[in-house]
Amino acid sequence: MSNFYEERATMIAAGDLQEFVPFGRDHCKHHPNALNLQLRQLQPASELWSSDGAAGLVGSLQEVTIHEKQKESWQLRRGGSEIGEVDYDEELYVAGNMVIWSKGSKSQALAVYKAFTVDSPVQQALWCDFIISQDKSEKAYSSAEVEKCICILQSSCINMHSIEGKDYIASLPFQVANVWPTKYGLLFERSSSSHEIPPGPPREPLPTMFSMLHPLDEITPLVCKSGSLFGSSRVQYVVDHAMKIVFLSTDPSIVMTYDTVQCLHSVWVLRRVKAEEENAVLKFSEQGGTPQNVAPSSSLTANLRSLSKGDSPVASPFQNYSSIHSQSRSTSSPSLHSRSPSISNMAALSRAHSPASGVHSFTGVQRFNLSSHHQSPRRHSISHSPDSNSNSSFLAPETEPIVPELCIDHLWTEAITNIREKNSQASKVFITSDLCGQKFLCFLVESQLQLRCVKFQESNDKTQLIFGSITNIQAKDAAPVEKIDTMLVLESSGNLVLYTGVVRVGKVFIPGLPAPSLTMSNAMPRPSTPLDSVSTPTPLSKLLGTLDEVVLLSPVPELRDSSKLHDSLYNEDCTFQQLGTYIHSIRDPVRNRVTLELSNGSMVRITLPEIATSELVQTCLQAIKFILPKEIAVQMLVKWYSVHSAPGGPSYHSEWNLFVICLMNMMGYNTDRLAWTRNFDFEGSLSPVIAPKKARPSETGSDEDWEYLLNSDYHQKVESHLLNRSLCLSPLEVSQIKDEDLSQNLSLDSSTLLFSHIPAMFFVLHLVYEELKLNTLMGEGIHSLVDLLVQLARDLKLEPYLDHYYRDYPTLVRTTGQVCTIDQGQTGFMHHPSFFTSEPPSIYQWVSSCLKGEEMPPYPYLPGICERSRLVVLSIALYILGDESSVCDESSHYLSRISVAPQKSQAEQEENRFSFRHSPSVSSLAERLVVWMANVGFTLRDLETLPFGIALPIRDAIYHCREQPAADWPEAVCLLIGRQDLSKQACEGNLPKGKSVLSSDVPSGTETEEEDDGMNDMNQEVMSLIWSEDLRVQDVRRLLQSAHPVRVNVVQYPELSDHEFIEEKENRLLQLCQRTMALPVGRGMFTLFSYHPVPTEPLPIPKLNLTGRAPPRNTTVDLNSGNIDVPPNMTSWASFHNGVAAGLKIAPASQIDSAWIVYNKPKHAELANEYAGFLMALGLNGHLTKLATLNIHDYLTKGHEMTSIGLLLGVSAAKLGTMDMSITRLLSIHIPALLPPTSTELDVPHNVQVAAVVGIGLVYQGTAHRHTAEVLLAEIGRPPGPEMEYCTDRESYSLAAGLALGMVCLGEGDTINVDVTCPGATLALAMIYLKTNNRSIADWLRAPDTMYLLDFVKPEFLLLRTLARCLILWDDILPNSKWVDSNVPQIIRENSISLSEIELPCSEDLNLETLSQAHVYIIAGACLSLGFRFAGSENLSAFNCLHKFAKDFMTYLSAPNASVTGPYNLETCLSVVLLSLAMVMAGSGNLKVLQLCRFLHMKTGGEMNYGFHLAHHMALGILFLGGGRYSLSTSNSSIAALLCALYPHFPAHSTDNRYHLQALRHLYVLAAEPRLLVPVDVDTNTPCYALLEVTYKGTQWYEQTKEELMAPTLLPELHLLKQIKVKGPRYWELLIDLSKGTQHLKSILSKDGVLYVKLRAGQLSYKDDPMGWQSLLAQTVANRNSEARAFKPETISAFTSDPALLSFAEYFCKPTVNMGQKQELLDLFSSVLYECVTQETPEMLPAYIAMDQAVRRLGRREMSETSELWQIKLVLEFFSSRSHQERLQTHPKRGLFMNSEFLPVVKCSIDNTLDQWLQAGGDVCLHAYLSGQPWEESQLSMLACFLVYHSVPAPRHLPSVGLEGSTSFAELLFKCKQLKMPVRALLRLAPLLLGNPQPMVM
What we know:
By secondary structure, the chain is an alpha+beta fold. The protein has 72 helices and 47 strands. The strands form 13 sheets. It has a six-stranded mixed β-sheet with strand order 16-15-20-19-18-17. Strands 1-28-27-26-25 form a five-stranded mixed β-sheet. It is globular and about 135 Å long.
């Protein structure tokens, strides 16, 4: 064995020595807050804390000591980043009141990430992740989202700051000694004060450990479950003061504690408490109940509360924080949400001071409660436990017991030894794992200089941990090096030693620090680091200090308490005095970096080298480690590590050579004598890197110098170098070896470590080799590996393997070579594992057999190492063999997992062979494959590195899926199939609802002030696509703006005086203002949800401008001049509507919080109405739920009528249908009928009562709540009794009660008998029986059909009756005028006048006026019901029908005898019909309706009052609802909302609320739903046109139909649809199937309806090419062959935006001058490119070119490796495979995946080349191979190509069949059947085998 491995003390060289200073220390000095902190520190502590008596004095003393030397501490952790493997440290530094969190690494400079300054000294700061999930069960922890926080502990409270920016403060009810982060949240240890009196009998001891699972949860005591002597485990609170936590780990979740009395360490598992333990603890505390039988669990609670006293210098845990922060941080400050408002916190806590206070004084006291607004439901389950004490259920809510949440469960305690020092508490604990993954829990007992390591492992069922024995290592300090699975141990002698587990690896040599054996009086250059190169380098002697100083300084860092100082000094007394220990502790390990603290207090950070840097070595090591027994594996790895990491280690290239030599030495080879390893060139590793030698003051040398030389890098390098003897010391010997080496046989040394495992290692390395073949990037590695494998295969005499390697790499594998003999006697020691197969496993061969449909044994697989092989095998099994179960179960029968355990016998495995099974749905196989591959994390980059033949089936599946993907696939799948449109959609779908692509980012300051008409934020881009032909949007904007003065056109007649003229103008303005005031409602509709507010700016509300300008001089006309009488409060409702309109601009997805809502409150009282409207709007878009209850209360107490109306309606709309109790209480206060009879009479304004009643309807909508319904029913007909005497607007209250009743019983159809007397009841009935088609009810609502009865009904009510009747008979409504007329009773129809006639028919017994009024109202009612039935449907026949009636009514208005009916009635009916028309065409912006609205906008005189303007502009708003993005829904809830909003009695003037409360007009929002689908081009990210095909479900009126729409378009209601499809040919098809559920589409629509689409190659968008005549495909279809020539590479940019393809065209397809030979290649490339682009398979371009290159290389006979030939063979086999043929039959129309002309040509060329070779002497060579004789070297590669391409079996298979003796071809054919040899190969072999060498002529 070579002296490469002499057992000298191996040294490991650490790299990267850098001086370490915590970054925070420096930053602290410059932090802006440092100055005032210092000032504050000068004050005595007693002024800082309002403390009392002795406690205060103690406090101030502590303060002073702290400030003498500022206490600092820091911790480091690994900084993870999402992008790539950037590895850096994160530091959390604490000093004084500051916490500084910095990040940084070698590659990126250090930077402060966050700095926090708090009010009192920080006791501890830590990182902690909280789980934000509602169910806190164990399983929630694996998946739940985490809130990453920094927790800062102060004496009285703990601050938590999450990365998202949330801040929480929790008061601490006791003094905390320590906080630990756990997997579940925080764990607190209560500090036990010396003067805590042991509790008397009635009191239990108080818990010492508490947990807090989330900043908003309560602090709850910990439960402990320990096994007692008798085996029964006892569950109780953790109350033992002697138990201290020394360590806590999150994964595994364990706690290590130390018992200060017994001096023992124990380990516990930390987990969620189970229900039975919870009950046991609560019951347990009850059994020890007090004699008075108060439920004693309250005593625990009480004591916990009292606990915060006594030992704290702070008067109360609340005083310090909540008083300061209660305003700003209302979310979680405890004082705001205390549960018993009766006693203030201060009172409660000060009571706690009295020492005599017993248990009972606490029952009423507020428990310390850190929960947020919601009291989580799990708190209430305890009192119902079956065996709980009887009176526990009667506890007052304040004393409800505190339910424990975490439990520690005992696992292990160290053995008790006889001698126990008192202070043997572990000072440092960590978990480390050795190189083979065995885990150890190590704890350092400093007093005994011992590191104790306990091995532990998971039990087989993964439920518990099993602990093993303890191993003691002598150590002064230790730290884990997690990245390389080792730990650093500082021995008491001062040596740093590396261990893996408990196996010693070697000493660590740190260049630049002296070895501990040298004394250190002389100077040593300080290692210069980038950080300090600026300052002048101080000599290291100053840094390290001289020896005497060292003794004076404490050798223990300030962080450890000084009591340990003496022990450590005495223990190492001798070594310390003589040698001077330099390294004195180790801290802050991160990955493979660690800080060494030197004895003079300076620190250096070092990096330990990794196990291996090259990927190849890493993989091989992993495989070998996997297969060897653990102990041997560790030894092997330790040896390798010490060789690899020796000082001056190898460079990247020679690492493999080093590995081979190291491995072969361990197997027993003598690598110096082996020819190929002897020639390894360790380039550059002999360069003299000499460590700086220190000059000694004394001139004479000493032994130490010699030792130092021997330890130097250089010496070790020379010594360890392989060529040391052969080159330097004995050159003669070298030449002799050269002559001998071939003649003399080498033999293996069987005594070495790995000798017996050679076969197993050979096999796994072979599998690694097969795995690397599947990665095209690892070519170099395969070459290296083949050498090693060939050597081993030769020595193990494995002919099949040698043949296999020869066929793969003919030029590398010589047939002869140096063989090392293995003694026959020794082969017995070799362990041949059960999984070793004599036939070499070949992945290519396996795939090839599958494609041919032959049977194959399962493929062996190394879990975790050969992942690609597994993936390829399973995907082929799924896609080619059609076995869907192959990817479902873990233990697939296509793979045999290799394990060290003995396996099943061969026979059993044989049964597992499989054959091709026909699968029913082949197309779904592709989907299964793609989805599975994405799930296992396979990406496009992986696919690109697979060889093209192997990747082909996968690419084929991807191509399938790309054509018709499902719309709801996850993002990873869409990326894999190359549909960016879908992946972007999936990715946006996971984003929180925020701004989408389309939201317009118009900066708010661009427009000047006066221009703001409230419509600036509309999305112009989409609207210009929807209405591209005209400027109708600008027109609507002009009609709806109310911010500019109006034109007042009055002609001054000569007889008018100037004063009269001014009055005339002002009267005219007053008329116009009726219109202006009605505009905001419509504007709100138009701008609905179009704006995302900036949280730092108030919402801009455009002002309502009621002035005018009179031409020609543009003089201002104003109403306030006092010339005419203006109604008081005229503008109050108009301002309200203006506020609503502004508020409704805010999109529901915006980020809005309570503070912003309050921030918008106006300064001036006159804007209060607008703010009231703004509040209502926020309720309608759902943001009002964020407003704190406190603020709601504030607003209501102001007593401002409008604010109350807006707020009540808003809150109710936000809580629609929730039956929310708190809102119900809020509303009930305003409704006398819902108050108890004895309550105080509250003077609630009438309109507020109306709003509250409707609010009740909204909150209870659709719930059929019995009590509410009865009260509302009574309210409808309540006579105006004494309390309503003053009331004039009685009607609106009754109507509101009716509407509310209708909402509560919406569509329930309960038989509630209502006397139909008034509008409210009519509508209530309509809503209760909505869509029930209940004839009997509908018949009550029939219009009277006799004159007598007609006289009893107010004509207006007929409108409501007709409407109600039609809504009940929903399915009978038909969109034609015949149906509308059918609602009119016969008597009216016969006798009604036609308005166009001149004379009136005279008739005595008929009242013509009544008849004609009844007629128009009934028709209007029928039209309105038509509007409801077809709302938002854009139904053409409904539109035509309603448009006809609208025109009719306009003609009636100008007819001569309109006065009979009354213009007012006609105007009302016209408005109703116009609204119905707008409802049907909602959001569509229909031009004809717009013209009607515009015409009515211009009419301002005569009967046109405020109400009619309101109706007309609402119609205009609905027509352009939300800027064309919204439409109306016809769900029950929407109809109810629309009935409130469009109630067909319009106010007469702007303050008129008599019949209907104006605020209800805005409830239309509840019926609006986003239905606009906007295609967005995924490449340009701009909206575009795309053709959609919408399929309707069949209904009773029509069959299932398809309709084509050009998007962007409003979709029909989703419940009517079956599917939506983006149609080709321009865009990739995309199907959204609604039969599976509408959720996916709804989420798309709610995010601005963005649907990503992707243009196909060669297509232009509809905007650029409306007719589709310009696409490239259209031009080149003409003639297939000439077109390849005509294809100009320049035009490719129209086809594709892929930069790779563009540059390919640029560099490979552009012809240049005198091409010559290359012209043909150029044409080939051009046509290949054209093929790829037009068939949209650009990913096949590399495959085409690789195949072409391979064929050319074979033709030139230059093939040195056969992998490319294999790939071509696999491609050909795939296209001729059975599964592929079947797919072609099922989808004949599908595009070709590879050009059908290309493959036969390739096949033909290869055949030709190989046949030529056979004829030119190849047959001789082939014959030699088959008969096992040597053949000539020159033919090596071609022979291998022939063997591979024709699948010729190895010679060893041939004799078994006896081919040689065959006489005829038929016999040969028969014999070869079992060899699975293709016929075409046999045809070529037949001449050789049949013995007549003439080629057969076929």
